[in-house]
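thought: fold this chain, then report.
action: predict
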Amino acid sequence: MEGIYNFEINTKVYNEKDVKYYSLAITSAVPNGRTSVLLHGGRDDAKGWSQGCILPMPNPPEINSPYASKNRKNTKEQSIDFTKELINWVRMREAEIKKQNKQIDKVVKQIIITKTF
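observation:
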């Protein structure tokens, strides 16, 4: 759903071999009684297996592709690497904000989700 949501870096909650090991967790109120929605690397598939998670991709995915299409624009590895880049960028921005504002102990992180299709 479109909106502005709070999130946290969600590393080391999962086994290091799990794609969710490097993830962000949307912690704002989420639908269906869930405690969070994860952003983690995964396959570039329409109708894929994310089970309600958000799968960050460095390239726009193929629109309306069949499941397991050979025309994917992103690999699972690219998605995981892109997710790691996002996490590193968030950490860098948080450090910059705290350095500029010594009185801030905690930086509230937010993500804006919009429809762009």
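thought: worth noting. The chain has a mean pLDDT of 84.
final: tokens above.
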